[in-house]
Amino acid sequence: MAESGEALLKKVYYENCPGCKVEQRNEIHRGIPVKEFSYVSLATLCTSLPISSLYPFVYFMFYMLSRDISDTLCFLKGSAFMFGRALTSIIWGVIADRYGRKPVIVIGTVSVILFNTLFGLSTNFWMALWMRFLLGSFNGLLGPIKAYAVEVSRKEHHAIGLSLVSTANAIGLIIGPALGGFLAQPAEKYPNLFSNDSLFARKHYTSTMKVKKSTRTKIWSRLLIVLIRNLTKK
Fold it and tell me: Which parts pass through the membrane (predicted)?
């Protein structure tokens, strides 16, 4: 009988196996993976910002796009993101399990940058509504990000990784409205910086989306490099 604490089966690592590389890394590095956890936190933060960033100016934006705005239309606009996410979350989870987390993360990254910018450039109510719906529908990132947080850490650090995801998500929901309200209507608030003939004067809410887009692009580009190199599933 094997002595207490002795492994009954010998661990075997195969070459060109992403999962084996991560397991070996976790065996060697017993500390908290600070770098990987920081990427997870930043990615989650950028994912949660679009959820609530529009609430300070959603009514004014729709009134500008359509004078016949109603409470029902405002409700549809505000809920379009979460409705799209609710419809597709399980589908993205199935895709991530079957084809790997990498394509889901890449698609979600591109969709956040693309649809959020198009939302700020919307020319009518229905375009804005569809952009929010598509943004939520293609935003299947939280599941793969949680899986990544667990995979790159040892068992005793799993709770820390998942707690960072929840904390970053909550912070994004808090600062999202503040950021959206601060950057809305820049030509009126900051006439010394933005001309009345500029795009920001014609599209009052473009600066909100563009600033968040530039921030996300930098964070996501770095995050993708790390994920593509370290993901256990292709």
Answer: 39-63, 75-96, 103-123, 161-184
